[in-house]
Amino acid sequence: MKVDNETGTIVASEYAVAAKEAGLELATWSLERSGWLNTGGDAFYASVSSVINNDGDMYTVLDALAQKVGVRYMFSDWAATVTYYASCFGL
């Protein structure tokens, strides 16, 4: 994923779009392995650090991965975040 500079929102990267078009199911690893999001989230969030500024943005990132990128499987170091999100959206 990356930031659309015109809208300032998180969107699927060209690589993610190509992978989906090739029929691949996308998975992520280590959703919450980073530092605090109010400090940019370390290297794990480098591609979207310009649009995250608080720990609640974890859900913004998670929603973008699920809805815009099309991730089907997600590993998180803290299962509560992805479980809560999946429960809210009936996933």
UniProtKB/TrEMBL annotation:
One of its GO terms (molecular function) is phosphoric diester hydrolase activity. One of its GO terms (biological process) is lipid metabolic process. InterPro entries: PLC-like_Pdiesterase_TIM-brl. This is GP-PDE domain-containing protein. It comes from Lophiostoma macrostomum CBS 122681.
